[in-house]
Specification:
The complex is a heterodimer. By secondary structure, chain A is α/β, with parallel strands linked by helices. Chain A is built from eight helices and ten strands. In chain A, the strands form two sheets. Chain A has a five-stranded antiparallel β-sheet. In chain A, a hairpin with a 6-residue loop joins β1 and β2. Chain B has a six-stranded mixed β-barrel. The chains are: A alpha/beta, B alpha+beta. The complex binds adenosine-5'-diphosphate (ADP) and magnesium ion. Adenosine-5'-diphosphate binds next to β2 and α1 of chain A.
Chain lengths: 227, 383
């Protein structure tokens, strides 16, 4: 691949110290092309979330290099990493992780406000995004007044608020019933295409995985070592 | 308003759903408010008492005193007095001479300080002396001078019989011994046998605290051979004690505020722990560590500002009401005032407020610092 959106080279990541040390990712190489939608699958505990956190600049690798959109991120300081997360990356988690204190619209507006937009501008765009995920009627509902599927759709809208280049979704449908899961996945797929995103979706659902452009299988035998 | 402060305000007011933070906030708020209130009221009480003492001092003591730098008698006191009187029109200038003597009355014979002043007509004993001698107005006491007179029987001490005209209150902070005040000429005769003047005492009720400076100015080139003392110099130990009292009280009651601030620290840390995941999310959405820190700093400062304003307002109000209504009466005769006096000084209140704000900011800063250091992934583990 000539100019990938995401490039990992020799990435290692483990947790804990001494006896309790667990190596999760070992010497991992990976490239994801622009506009590609990649599914990451593998047994629980294999390091899928860890991988997503590293790509999403939520954590730092122990070794190896990561490049996002051609930028080597290792040299960036905390504030620059935060700015890059805000601008380039949209995240959807297994749980909605919306802020309880804010209604749906303000939750969606949050990345825009963090990015420095005025409250009015942020709210306008948030309202438009909620319409795109089919929740314009729910703008003033608080997270605990929404169903699981609706919460996830608000989370998707929030992930796209800043018009990011990369969408990272960690088991976005893991907690949903079949019907809601289908709705959320279709939404992600549709937005991926329309917005020209580069997406990485972690999922346990082989059916959904097969609808992505490529499936990456994390294998405990090759990537995980328990010392 | 930056979004981190908007969020801090949301957390504080519990505007959204969960009111857990709001409860915790209320507890911190009450603690700090009470601390500020206590400090304001206590200092107002102290200032009330201290200003009554200062008032008494101004009423009873000289406001400036001019004596010879050498410690001996004044040369040409009348000329000096005239000159000062001319340049300080509204001040009174009196000639004074003092010395030790023995005073005898029905209650016994005691040492006392004898003060002669040009502005008194009759003889006055202060309360302590009158009590020791068991005398009152109309009684006669015998004064024994350290000066001797040569008689055919050899040198004998000079004696005089004086009729007490009135009994006067004592100056605050006036040592142990009694004081007998008499007309200048009488005392000059007892102590010196000639018109000797030890010092000039000046009073200016309109501006007692700056009189010494004005005297120095008026003296011009004669200043060198003279010693000029202001009301503060004349009662230095008393003023020192008052300042010390204020400092100690501020420290003691200020500790209450420190405890309240520690409570705020715990509460901000609790909020930080409870909001761990939210913080990771905010950070994940691109909020820089410095802004996450500011969110918590904002939390502490908002609580601190609200508590400070509330405590200062309530404290000042309470002190003023207690002072106006005289709700706390004092036993008559012991103090110069009939009810516990409170005096709210804007400067003192400002100092308390700044102190409280600094403490609250510090209290929030400590947990804020640790929070902002974490990588967001740490807060995102699924429990
Ligand atoms: N912060 C952490 N501290 C210790 N161990 C961790 C931490 N995060 C992840 N792990 C461990 O790393 C391994 C991979 O975790 P994770 O990436 O969440 O797996 P997956 O998402 O594939 O289920 C697991 O064994 C998990 O217990
Ligand atoms: Mg996971």
């Amino acid at each position: 691949m000539s100019d990938p959106m995401v490039r990992l080279e020799g990435v290692c990541k483990g947790y804990g110290e001494g006896e309790r040390r667990v190596e999760v990712l070992r010497d991992l190489d990976m490239e994801i092309g622009r506009g590609e939608m990649v599914a990451v699958v593998g047994p629980s505990g294999v390091g899928k979330s860890t991988l997503l956190h590293l790509i999403g600049l939520l954590d730092r690798p122990d070794a190896g290099s990561i490049e996002l959109d051609g930028v080597p991120v290792a040299s960036l300081g905390p504030a620059e990493r935060a700015a890059l997360r805000n601008r380039l990356i949209g995240f959807v988690f297994q749980f909605h992780y919306l802020l309880d204190e804010l209604d749906a619209r303000d939750n969606v507006a949050l990345p825009l406000r963090i990015g420095g937009r005025s409250r009015r501008e942020a709210r306008e765009r948030a309202g438009a995004l909620l319409e795109r995920v089919g929740l314009s009627g729910r703008a003033h509902h608080y997270p605990d007044e929404l169903s699981g599927g609706e919460q996830q759709r608000v989370a998707v809208a929030r992930a796209l608020a800043m018009g990011p280049g990369i969408l990272l979704a960690d088991e976005p449908t893991g907690n949903l019933d079949r019907e809601s899961a289908e709705k959320v996945f279709s939404l992600i797929r549709e937005l991926h295409l329309k917005e020209g995103l580069t997406s990485v979706i972690v999922t346990h659902n082989e059916g959904l995985a097969s609808r992505c452009d490529r499936v990456v299988r994390l294998d405990p035998a090759s990537t995980v070592t328990h010392v | 308003m930056p979004v981190e402060f908007a969020l801090a305000a949301r957390y504080l007011l519990g505007l959204g759903r969960r009111t857990h933070v709001a409860t915790v906030t209320a507890i911190s708020l009450v603690g700090l408010t009470l601390g500020v209130l206590a400090l304001v009221v206590t200092l107002a009480l102290l200032e009330g008492f201290q200003s009554t003492i200062r008032g008494e001092l101004v009423r009873l003591s000289a406001h400036a005193r001019v004596s010879a730098a050498s410690g001996r008698l004044l040369g040409d006191p009348d000329g000096l007095a005239r000159r000062l009187q001319e340049s300080l029109g509204d001040a009174t200038v009196e000639e004074v001479v003092t010395g030790s003597c023995l005073v005898a009355g029905p209650g016994g014979t005691v040492p006392a300080r004898l003060v002669g002043r040009s502005d008194v007509e009759g003889v006055a004993a202060d309360r302590v002396l009158a009590a020791r001698l068991a005398v009152g107005p109309g009684d006669t006491v015998r004064v024994l001078s350290p000066r001797t007179r040569l008689t055919p029987l050899g040198p004998v001490p000079v004696r005089a019989g004086l009729e007490i005209g009135e009994v006067i209150p004592r100056e605050p902070g006036a040592g142990e011994g009694g004081v007998l005040v008499a007309p200048l000429a009488v005392v000059q005769r007892i102590l010196w046998g000639r018109p000797a003047v030890e010092a000039l005492e000046l009073r200016d009720p309109a501006d007692p605290w700056h009189l010494a400076a004005r005297v120095r100015e008026a003296l011009g080139d004669r200043r060198g051979s003279l010693r000029v003392e202001g009301i503060g110099d004349l009662h230095r130990p008393l003023f020192l004690a008052l300042a010390l009292e204020r400092a100690m009280l501020f420290l003691a009651v200020g500790l209450m505020l420190v405890v309240a601030a520690l409570n705020l620290l715990c509460n901000v840390a609790m909020v930080a722990a409870g909001k761990r995941r939210d913080l990771a999310v905010l950070s994940g959405l691109g909020m820089a560590p410095a802004r996450v820190r500011r969110l918590f700093l904002g939390l502490g400062v908002m609580i601190g500002a609200a508590a400070t304003a509330l405590g200062a307002g309530l404290g000042a109000g309470l002190a003023m009401v207690l002072d106006r209504t005289g709700a706390l009466p004092l036993p008559r005769g012991v103090f110069a005032v009939t009810a516990v006096p409170f005096r709210v000084q804007p400067v003192t209140v400002a100092v308390v407020m700044v102190f409280s704000l600094i403490l609250a900011t510090l209290a929030a800063w400590l947990p804020a610092r640790t929070v902002a250091r974490r990588e967001p992934a740490e807060g995102l583990r699924y429990e």
